[in-house]
Write a structure and sequence with these properties.
With 198 residues, the chain is mainly beta. The chain has a single domain, classed as Sandwich (Jelly Rolls), CATH 2.60.120. 15% of the residues lie in helices and 37% in strands. The strands form 4 sheets. A 7-stranded antiparallel β-sheet has the order 1-2-13-10-15-8-5. The chain has a 4-stranded antiparallel β-sheet with strand order 9-14-11-12. Strands 3-4 form a two-stranded antiparallel sheet. The radius of gyration is 16 Å and the shape is globular. The structure holds 2-oxoglutaric acid (AKG) and fe (ii) ion. 2-oxoglutaric acid binds next to strand 8, strand 14 and strand 15. Keywords: Dioxygenase, Oxidoreductase.
Length: 198
């Protein structure tokens, strides 16, 4: 990787120009057309709601995943994603066996506060997030206050072709979210690569 920014006091790195723009353009179009996008139903405080985005769980056949009260059998890897999975795995030093793909159609689509801390990811998961399409704001917020009673907060812009790596205690120490925006923004695809411990 090149041009990597380390977020201070975290185990988070961002490579803003990880994938060349022409490659990222082609991947965006291939995924938009080939992924069986669906609106996932999530359970929040015991209520079923439709997620404000389109999603698809993709992975090896044995990489079963539970997420917000739902269970997902993975869709097979689309051809366009196989070399990307291998390059992302090489960059992070982790053999990823699954990916959650999200399509944010416009600024009204979003993802609420959460940590990627499901048990099947192990105690200190490496999560690698590849962003394609419109630049959106990604926010990390500390789960516990520091000695001064303040909650750490980091705001990152995730541009087309950027790679965000979260390691170590990141999921234990922070929640993250992709907020809605009133700005006119085009569609964005995000891929969070994960290693499910089968
Ligand atoms: O869209 C993003 O950048 C965040 C996605 C995310 O947090 C997730 O899939 O768990
Ligand atoms: Fe996440």
């Amino acid at each position: 990787m090149f041009d990597i920014a380390d977020l201070p006091d975290t185990d988070v790195q961002l490579a803003p120009r990880w994938m060349p723009a022409v490659e990222a353009d082609a991947l965006f179009e291939a995924l938009r057309a080939d992924v069986p996008w669906a609106r996932h139903r999530l359970r929040i405080f015991g209520r079923e709601v439709e997620a404000p985005r389109l999603s698809c769980w993709i992975g090896d056949p044995d990489a079963m995943y539970r997420y917000s009260g739902a269970r997902f059998t993975p869709e097979p890897w689309p051809a366009a994603l196989v070399p990307v999975r291998d390059a992302v795995s090489a960059a992070a030093g982790v053999r990823f066996n699954s990916v959650l793909a999200n399509l944010y159609r416009d600024g009204q689509d979003a993802m609420g506060w959460h940590s990627d801390d499901e048990r099947e990811l192990g105690s200190e998961p490496v999560i690698v997030s590849l962003s394609l399409g419109a630049t959106r704001r990604f926010v990390l917020k500390g789960r516990v206050a520091d000695a001064d009673g303040r909650f750490a907060r980091h705001v990152l812009e995730l541009p087309h072709g950027s790679l965000l790596v979260m390691r170590g205690e990141t999921q234990a120490r922070f929640r993250h979210a992709l907020p809605r925006t009133a700005r006119p923004v085009g569609p964005r695809i995000n891929l969070t690569f994960r290693k499910i411990l089968c």
